[in-house]
Design goal:
CATH topology of the largest domain: FAD/NAD(P)-binding domain
Number of domains: 2
Distance between the termini: 31 Å
Helix content: 25-40%
CATH superfamily of the largest domain: FAD/NAD(P)-binding domain
Largest sheet: 8 strands, mixed
CATH class of the largest domain: Alpha Beta
Length: 435
């Protein structure tokens, strides 16, 4: 059976979802095809926008927290970064990103996932590794734990019995050691027990909390929270997060938040599930399957062949958006060669097209270094149109967004989901005819 749409988006993580949601404004019929959840569902739950490119290693408290200034500085310093590519196309990435953030803020608010209000400064949030992270936007349950707003306030890191993924005592000690002398905290720790949770992951703890334990936990916490702020592990509800937070508040626990997450990530899952609800609310068709091949002629993409629920189907469209992610999601592959598997677009690292290159040449000795391999992706022009090996537009009705793009490390350079939101927003706008 053939499927006809006006716009087809390949991928439904943050970039693909934002692209589809923005394209809906054009009044056209939109479909998303995806293999499954990607890296958005594994994210910390927060939305990085731009770290300070001039920051001094080892002195994070001196970083510039103004993410809009950081966006402009990144665009000025790195010609291959998507922020710079968009700037070369005539966009002001800092202003456009603010517009895109307000858009996704409204979309997620409308499906029950409140985000902490958008400001011009990065939040400072606790992570489960014993430190903190600057991030531009977060879910409300996380953003309330902004350490800048809690400066000088007693803060309790809340551990859960039999939950090894969140060592509360270590986190509290590490924070006191690293930033206590700067007026943050003081930090202490306390352990609670969740009824029905005998041990396991944060996901299992979250399920136990929202299914049978939140009221009992709340009764234990009312006294602890008096005069201070509680930071939970990232477990405040998987499917019913609003009910969990409301129950805590009704029981007298008012001043609390949850930390950022590492995979397996409840806040990341929560974010992806909310994007799905937003797509469904706006009438976007979500098709679970994979693209097998594409028909391209005269510099236009005419159709896709996809396998959907075990059946091969032809998907026709006027415009298309590629938002398949990088290595984790399969948008960029590196087996014997570097390749983009949907359209066989060339993969670049900086100015250099790579294919059979030895991957070790793009990895540094230091594990936490800015590895060039993680900046691999397809190149686009200033309108987000993918380029072929001759650096010409591959198809005039195809756009790309998110971490499939070359020029930035979606997990390590402090711009991850910010780039996804901005490029998704612009790709959806372009594919929708500028709506």
């Amino acid at each position: 059976m053939d499927k006809k749409f006006d716009i087809v988006v390949i991928g439904s993580g943050m970039a693909g979802a934002v692209a589809a949601l923005k394209a809906v404004d054009s009044g056209k019929k939109i479909a998303v095809i995806r293999k499954g959840y990607g890296s958005t569902a594994l994210s910390s739950g927060a939305i990085d926008l731009a770290a300070d490119p001039l920051g001094i290693p080892g002195r994070p408290l001196e970083d510039n927290r103004d993410w809009q200034k950081n966006v402009k500085e990144i665009a000025r310093r790195d010609e291959f970064h998507p922020y710079a590519v968009l700037a070369a196309g005539g966009y002001a990435p800092d202003l456009e990103l603010a517009q895109a953030l307000n858009f996704i803020y409204r979309e997620l608010q409308g499906v029950g996932l409140p985000l902490f209000p958008v400001t011009g400064r990065n939040l400072t949030l606790v992570n489960p590794l014993g430190g903190f992270k600057f991030t531009g936007l977060a879910q409300e349950s996380q953003g309330k734990g902004d350490l800048e707003k809690l400066k000088g306030k007693k803060t309790v890191i809340l551990g859960v019995k039999n939950l090894p993924d969140f060592p509360a005592d270590y986190i509290a000690r590490a924070l006191n050691d690293s930033i206590g002398s700067q007026g943050y905290g003081p930090f202490s720790s306390q352990e609670i027990e969740i009824p029905g949770f005998g041990g396991g992951t944060t996901f299992e703890a979250a399920v136990a909390l929202e299914s049978e334990g939140v009221e009992k936990v709340a009764s234990l916490l009312a006294g602890i929270s008096a005069g201070g702020h509680l930071i939970f592990p990232p477990i405040l509800g998987a499917l019913r997060s609003r009910e969990v937070t409301e129950t805590l508040q009704k029981s007298g626990v008012l001043d609390f938040s949850e930390s950022l997450a590492v995979p397996t990530s409840i806040p990341g899952y929560r974010l992806q599930a909310a994007l799905d609800r937003a797509l469904e609310k706006r009438g976007v068709s979500i098709l679970n399957g994979r693209v097998i091949s594409a028909t391209v002629a005269d510099h236009r993409l005419h159709s896709l062949e996809a396998e959907i629920q075990g059946q091969k189907e032809k998907m026709e469209g006027q415009n298309f958006i590629l938002a398949t992610g990088k290595y984790l999601s399969g948008g960029i592959e590196r087996d014997r060669v570097f390749r983009e598997p949907v359209f066989d677009l060339p993969v670049f690292i900086g100015e250099k097209p790579v294919k059979e290159d030895f991957i070790k040449d793009f990895l540094l000795r230091e594990a936490l270094g800015p590895h060039p391999a993680f900046r691999a992706g397809i190149r686009v022009n200033g309108k987000l149109s993918p380029l072929n090996r001759s650096k010409q537009v591959f198809a005039e009705n195809l756009w790309a967004a998110g971490s499939v793009l070359a020029g930035y490390d979606s997990t390590g350079d402090g711009a991850g989901l910010g780039v996804a939101i901005l490029t998704g927003f612009k790709a959806g706008q372009e594919a929708g005819g500028g709506a």
